[in-house]
Amino acid sequence: MALNKDRRIGRHAILLLLSDNPTEQLAKLEQSNWKGCLGKVGSMDAQKIVAAIETAAKKNEIVKTDVYRESHALYHAIIEALHGVTRGQVQLGSVLRTVGLSFAVLRGNPYDNEQEGDWIAVSLYGTIGAPVKGSEHETIGLGINHI
Asked: What are the TM regions of this chain, as residue ranges (predicted)?
């Protein structure tokens, strides 16, 4: 049940998100039977961020819409990534904070043993701050969950 160092899903999700050439990076991952997508979202509402990421993952067939455990795993990975972005308190508009984020969703098996099954990672990178231009700073978050 060893975690394969070359298949660390969180690391790959962050590298995909921060890549200067994400299309090429994603094509390499897809050669290993991994699936991924990228997108952007900005909001003062955490629900809109969750919805945008879920929609992108479903539209790009990273999770099956009719299998609850897949959507559930994605949801928990998103919330975990948001905890990193918001430093543990998933609150935005209610405390006058807004985010502008890029995201990557990646699905694959990070283990040598195929029977371990797929995992999902969500990485977020962008800015967070008061809803006033110039009052933001960088932020990053990562969430990983088994499917």
From this structure: none
